[in-house]
Amino acid sequence: MIRLVLRRVLAAIPTLLVIITLSFFMLRAAPGGPFTEARRLPPQVLANLERMYHLNEPVWEQYGRYLTHILRGDFGPSYVYRSTTVNALIEQGLPVDLTIGGLALALALLIGMPLGILAALRQNTAWDYVSMAGAMAGISVPTFVVAPLMILLLAVKAHWLPAGSWSNGAPDHLVLPVLALALPLIAYVARIMRGSMVEVLNSPYIRTARAKGLPERTVILRHALKPALMPLISFLGPAVVNTLTGSIVVEEIFGLPGIGRFFVDGALNRDYTLVMGVTILYAMLIIAFNLIADLLYGVLDPRARQQ
Amino acid sequence: MSEPALLEVRALDVHFSVRGPGLLPSRLTLRAVDQVSFDVRAGEVLGVVGESGCGKSTLSRALLKLIPATGGSVRLRGVELTTLPKAAMRPLRRSMQMIFQDPLASLDPRMTVGEIIAEPMKALLPAMGRVEREQRVLRTMQQVGLLPAQINRYPHEFSGGQAQRIGIARALVVEPQLVICDEPVSALDVSIKSQIINLLLDLRAEHGLTYIFVAHDLATVRHIADRVMVLYLGRVMEITDRDALYARPLHPYTRLLLSAVPIPDPALARRRRVAPAREELPSPLALPSGCAFRTRCPLADARCVAERPVLREIDGRYVACHHAEAAAA
Predict the structure, then answer these.
(1) Considering only CA atoms, which of B70, B38, B4, B64 is closest in space to residue B238?
(2) Stated pTM of the model
């Protein structure tokens, strides 16, 4: 177990290096720079700015400098949000994403799993069809449609909830963004859960469990649930990261100060360090959650424990 | 025939409703088990044979109510099972256990051998203490030829034959009277096959067990069965004592099956009059009229098309064939 974690962490280093290198040079290859876009600066000012941020040096030197900074955990200064660092932006934005993302995930598991399991147990009944059709709708209707609709109905018309803004994570401000983020997730979780549960329930060892004379509840909870969770875990590894990071649309609609907005702003303004910082953060999250998913496999299935 | 049967099955039907072909499919009825009647006496081994798709596995699962029967009756020591609610059925599962075909797939890969074998006791003998349960797990493991040290291993660490021993231990640990063996050796190598069959015979002698032993070939059944029931497309063709069946099969289908048993001596094999099957197995969705076997039967005539032969007694044997007397004579 410990050896596995160590090996995977070590294997993550070259992966990260490749990601850093690729995104570094792809960003530099994109036309324009952080200070060329918006309004024309006097040449003298531009030269000063570039010197200040070492943008006048050869690219290789910049790359080497960036790597050494990263090793110290320093993502550098932001070019667009002047006078603040990328680290500070991440520290400021990440809690917002973790809060709404974490709550949305919890909601998705809490609602989606029982929904899917029940649909599997009542396979091909009205319950199954209705909940799965609902799930399909939840997946198909994009967030940028659902979220404004929710704002229109629940905030603007009914005045039950605030229409947006963070206000330091006040609970009533969280409800709508979390719901908007959770809706497609609930749907995915329910569908995956139903599919895997149906498959597991048809497997020979479930037949054995029934032939043993076990009550149906024991058959489901003790024999069927664990293996049925496996596909969900493979889905959740990347899905957790997507939810934590990919809430850009929700952040934008509800006006939340999350990382996603920095990412978009940074990309549009060629804010090299900001885009790099967020990219590296995402990459590390993806690697970490895939590792967690793999470790969970071992917990759930002794056959996966071998190496 | 004096003692009452342990298990009485009468006119058992297991029909499935399946989708027909086409864009607007109609529901078709698949008669997996069709009007099957037989008795199992305490202490005997009843072999059940037939080609794949003849309803052997469906029948054995329906006996244990793993699949609901659509008609007929199954009685265990006089207690009707088909109408019994789930909760009332549970205590009876102590008396009826099952051994499955694919030994490895039938075991939960997430449980240790000890947990697998102990679980039926937890469900069916809830009053039993932990220490006693553990002792019985170890005793049963020893009886089926597993080592006590293997108690904390997982199923995937075992070979097929060993896994089937776990399956047998799991079935026997609640001390059932009737064990339904659904092709327990079909997935195993020949050498392992005979080991498992001998183990089943030893266990039967030790515990006075009754087996329903399902197999797809007559050769395996010959080693273990006292009586043999031949199924074809969900119907009983013949039920006879083993020796009588092998010496003088009354049903043409039994003869066909016997001709498929390999004969080790090539000289003898050449002398066998082979009656090859005339046609493919008909679809169980569209059974032939009259006798189900008539499309492949060398003796088939107009009566076989018109009239379904009932299972009747001839010389103490049961045969469903209009021409059985001719074969008996």
Answers:
(1) B38
(2) 0.78
A202 touches chain B (CB under 8 A): no
Q: Name the residue ranges covered by the structural domains of chain A.
A: 95-258
d(CA B121, CA B105): 21
Closest-approach residue (CA) in chain A for B93: A213
Residues of B whose CB is below 8 A from A215: 90, 123
Q: State the complex-level ipTM.
A: 0.77
B110 to A214: CB separation less than 8 angstroms, yes or no? no
At B5-49, the pLDDT tens digits run: 899 999 999 999 888 777 777 888 889 999 999 999 999 999 999
Please give, rounded to a whole number of angstroms, the shortest distance from the CA of A300 to a CA of chain B: 7
A214 and chain B: CB distance < 8 Å anywhere? yes
Best residue of B106, B128, B154, B166 to probe chain A, by most A CBs closer than 10 Å: B106
C-beta atoms surrounding B49 within 10 Å: 27
Contact status of A221 with chain B (Cβ, < 8 Å): no
- The minimal CB distance from A211 to the residues B66, B102, B105 is found for B66
Helix H or strand E encompassing B75:
strand B71-76
Domain residue extents for chain B: 7-95+176-248
Q: What kind of architecture, by CATH, is found in domain A95-258? A: Orthogonal Bundle (1.10)
CATH annotation of B7-95+176-248:
3.40.50.300
Q: Is B271 exposed, middle or buried (0-12, 13-18, 19+ CB in 10 A)?
A: exposed
Sequence-separated (6 or more) residues with CB below 8 Å from residue A245: A97, A101, A259, A260, A263, A278, A281, A282, A285
